[in-house]
């Protein structure tokens, strides 16, 4: 019997390696604070060796979202590509242990290792990410079983994978399979620079194959190359039925057609901002999956983001079902 999933994600399967460090360490290692940098394999090995008190966890933006949604009670699966090496086997088993169906077996490829991201967390909670993409970049349609994409109520795609032609094709096919079966498909924009490199393809995917878009202010504005958020929201809503924009401490704006909903957030100082956007998406998608209105979806997203920035690591540590119940969101 084919299994139906509440939420399926496709994204980079990245092992996050997290360490706390001060600004002097970042300067000494040539790490630019507060951004995500793509690095090569030799640089990855250098930084890994320099990390103190490492915490290792399965990561990747959409994979974190899938884990968060699972913690809220959704039936989830994740599609990603890992090597049959130590990190790849760790990743696959860790996802399964967290109740997520990891669709792909590790690939016996002795050349390209499993992806990993070295994340250095500063005392102010800012994160500096140094990511070696490894085997993730070769994800293709062959890695996306129709039995999974065609049985997803919600399909969530990771914008980072849109940098590669095979990933673009896999996304289109997965989204179409989900929608053909009556589900909805959407994307996490992930990075404005990724949009800059593939704007026409991004807009085409959003207009023709997707039902919703989630991104932060810079990412939403990048779609139509405008510095005015209101304009960006209206333009994006003109080609996609649902647009969700996180604005850090300024709250969340949701466009559903021509209807706009703004939801405030309680500002707190983060212990570690890693995963804030990912867990916001988890809460929002949980709300969508369970039929909530847009304001409640945004409030669920905010609650999940607030929990994850209260501790080190990109995935929830609290009992999330109890947390949203305590906040009156169930």
What does this structure look like?
It is a single chain. With 330 residues, the protein is of the alpha/beta class. Helix content is 39%, strand content 22%. It has 13 helices and 14 strands. It has helices spanning 23-29, 41-50, 61-71, 86-97, 146-149, 165-180, 192-197, 199-209, 217-223, 229-237, 276-289, 294-308, 320-326; strands spanning 5-10, 14-20, 36-38, 55-59, 76-79, 101-102, 115-121, 127-132, 152-158, 184-188, 212-216, 242-246, 252-256, 259-263. Strands 6-5-1-9-10-11-12-13-14 form a nine-stranded mixed β-sheet, with helices on both faces. Strands 3-8-7-2-4 form a five-stranded mixed β-sheet. The protein is globular and about 50 Å long. The two termini are 31 Å apart. The mean pLDDT is 93.
What distinguishing features does this structure have?
five-stranded mixed beta sheet, nine-stranded mixed beta sheet, 330 residues, 39% helix, alpha/beta
What is the compact description of this entry?
It contains 13 helices and 14 strands. It has helices at 23-29, 41-50, 61-71, 86-97, 146-149, 165-180, 192-197, 199-209, 217-223, 229-237, 276-289, 294-308, 320-326, and strands spanning 5-10, 14-20, 36-38, 55-59, 76-79, 101-102, 115-121, 127-132, 152-158, 184-188, 212-216, 242-246, 252-256, 259-263.
């Amino acid at each position: 019997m084919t299994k139906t999933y509440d939420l399926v994600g496709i994204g980079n399967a990245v092992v996050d390696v997290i360490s706390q460090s001060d600004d002097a360490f970042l300067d000494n290692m040539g790490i630019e604070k507060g951004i995500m940098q793509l690095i090569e394999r030799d640089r990855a090995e250098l930084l890994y060796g320099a990390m103190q008190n490492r915490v290792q966890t399965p990561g990747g933006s959409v994979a974190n979202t899938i884990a968060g949604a699972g913690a809220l009670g959704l039936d989830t699966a994740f599609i990603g590509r890992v090597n049959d090496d130590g990190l790849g086997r760790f990743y696959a088993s860790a996802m399964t242990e967290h109740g997520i169906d990891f669709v792909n077996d590790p690939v016996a490829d002795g050349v390209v290792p499993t992806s990993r991201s070295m994340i250095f967390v500063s005392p102010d909670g800012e994160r500096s990410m140094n990511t070696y993409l490894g085997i993730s970049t070769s994800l293709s349609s062959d890695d996306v079983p129709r039995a999974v994409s065609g049985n997803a109520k919600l399909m969530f795609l990771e914008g980072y994978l849109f940098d590669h032609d095979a990933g673009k094709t896999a996304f289109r096919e997965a989204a179409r399979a989900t929608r053909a079966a009556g589900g909805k498909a959407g994307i996490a924009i992930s990075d404005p620079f990724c949009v800059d490199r593939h704007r026409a393809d991004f807009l085409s995917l959003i207009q023709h194959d997707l039902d919703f878009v989630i991104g932060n202010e810079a990412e939403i504005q990048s779609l139509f190359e405008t510095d005015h958020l209101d304009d960006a929201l209206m333009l994006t809503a003109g080609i996609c039925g649902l647009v969700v924009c996180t604005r850090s401490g300024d709250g969340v704006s949701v466009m559903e057609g021509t209807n706009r909903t703004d939801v405030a957030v309680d500002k707190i100082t983060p212990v570690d901002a890693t995963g804030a956007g990912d867990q916001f998406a988890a809460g929002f998608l949980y709300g969508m999956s369970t039929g909530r209105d847009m304001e409640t979806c945004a409030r669920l997203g905010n609650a999940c983001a607030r929990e994850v920035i209260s501790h080190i690591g990109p995935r929830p540590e609290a009992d999330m079902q109890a947390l949203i119940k305590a906040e009156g969101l169930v």
